[in-house]
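Q: Here's a chain of 201 amino acids. Please give me its 3D structure as tokens.
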Amino acid sequence: MLTRRNLLQSGAAVGLLGATPLTAQTVPDYPVPPQYEPRIVQLRVNLAPGEIHVMPDEFALYWTLPDLQAIRYTVGIGRVGLYEPGEFVVGAKKEFPSWKPTPDMVKRSPDQYARYEKDGIPGGLTNPLGARALYLFSPGRGDTFLRIHGTHLPNTIARAVSNGCARLVNDQIVDLYNRVPMQSRIVLYPRMGPNASSAQG
């Protein structure tokens, strides 16, 4: 199993990381169980390198690499009724993004979200989007308001708890963010139930 340090070094070796270095002072390591740490896996299906594939029944996000390999991250996903499968592209990337609830979120839970409707929440580690966010766009629709983003709450990983987005702990979203260029393809697969097949071999 690779540590985050190993993954960062491996990304730098193949030129995938951005120019902004990650330091312990900006984003700390978040404690997660060993099985939730990112790791390189072998795929048993032929996926093009440089794509994100989210398998909701596994709570897994795969960043595909050459030679039928991928980095597997463990994610939290949208809760029942809010998870939206489909094919998207990365239409924007933001570091420490600010956040506002969507109109649908305010309508569903006004007591929780209405107070943030006007001014939102400034960027920061405890912001709902965490340290980094990838913004999912689709043709003809533009911004879908779906995000792949960070969280400071490790207990929400490997659970269906969000308003539709996929979340990684902050240090892991920084690693993923640095690897993913603009316009990268993202596929969110439908939920199939506990016996769904895996993309991993």
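Q: Can you summarize the key feature?
A: The longest strand covers residues 86-95.
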